[in-house]
Model the fold of this input.
Amino acid sequence: MAAQTTDRGLSADRWLSARIRQEWWRGVAWTLLGLALSTVAVGPSLYVPGKVATEAAFHDARPCTGGAGAGDQGMSCLRTITGTVLSAQTVKSGRTKVFRIRLRPPVPAPADQFIDLDRNGDLSELVRPGGRVDVTTWRNDVVSVSRGGVRERLAGLPDDGPITFVGAALVVVGSAALAFVAAFGSARRARRLATGRPVVPRVPFAKATPVGVVGLPFVAAICAGHFWDTWTAVVMTVVIWALIAVPATILVLRWDREPSAAPTPGKEVTAPLDAPN
Done:
């Protein structure tokens, strides 16, 4: 009987030692992942200065002047191209429907490509094949389309670029922060298991991740882009994100259940392994 009790105790000790080692290795893996994501976040950040300069140039652009030089100025000024509509119809683009038009050639680029407008916009009621429209372009982008005093500005213009890259960088930074939090949680569980105090986490990270890590940076970018331009929008995107993400991360790290009592010898501890807290 005593031998069985001793074997059971040795088995429990081996199990606990293996569990502790597993937690430490998980902590190392989460740390390496966090470092890798931190490095990846540098990529989108490197594009931000160039995107900001492009946005500033776009906002400062003025209509092209007439004369022989107008074609050369068309790359840096707002050029208006008047053309005849070759086709105009509602088509499916991805998961949405758009009102797609194309001008009758020959017309200079970029007005020679398909132009997607809002299928519920005013121009969808006014533009028909054979009609005349004015297309405003800047460098290689179509800025707007107008007819009869009705004008529609296209999406995805240069002034949307910087905050998109900032939002993408913050998504990766937030993911790196979660990896470091998970590493902290693994190390903490290893220490508490070693002292007989397993911890049951309270924060459901799997449910909070899509909203907090992916949604928050882009919501901050949209808000900042609505009120500010160029570097101000970039800085305010980071500030808005930090004012929410940093306190939330601190609360997650501090929000912990009271440690449970030391496990009875011979009983298996059932604290989950996959939660980062």
In short: The chain is about 55% helix and 15% strand. The longest strand covers residues 79-93.
